[in-house]
Amino acid sequence: MSGWLNVGSFALGIIAWIMPIINLSRYKKNELRNWATLLIMSVSACTFSLCFQIFNTYHMVMIKDWSALMDTSGAVSFTAGVLLIVTILLNAITLITYRDRTRM
User: Fold this and answer.
1) How is residue 29 annotated by DSSP?
2) For 28-65, how does the pLDDT look when each residue is reduced to its tens digit (9 = 90+)?
3) Angle at 85 (CA atoms; ends 72, 29), nearest 5 degrees
């Protein structure tokens, strides 16, 4: 179970970064539809990715795998912070970019 939570967390983290990049690449082609949907999907993917890591930590506590918790807690904390900061920055850039184009 723990392995699948990590794989799911990694996949959702990559999706959280790809969505704003797709939004920014579509901006140059003047395709303004569904940019807000992709932005929301990006934030949601980041949220679920972090949630999977919390579930993984809970699973390790339930099976009393203290050595795995001690070995991985630093790396998990660091990567969760990087995921969150980069996702927020990419989505903020997308929001700022599209803000002027969608005003009426």
Assistant:
1) T
2) 776 667 888 999 999 999 999 999 999 999 999 999 99
3) 130
> What value does the CA radius of gyration of the chain take, rounded to a whole number of Å?
17
Paired tokens of 85: 């900061």
Would you tell me the crossing angle of helices 35-62 and 2-27 to the nearest 10 degrees? 160
Longest Cα–Cα distance in the chain: 57
Rounded (5°) CA angle 42-77-79: 50
For 54, the token pair is 């919390």
* Residues belonging to the chain: 104
State phi, psi for 93 to the nearest 5 degrees. -60, -45
- Tokens in use for 77? 């904390």
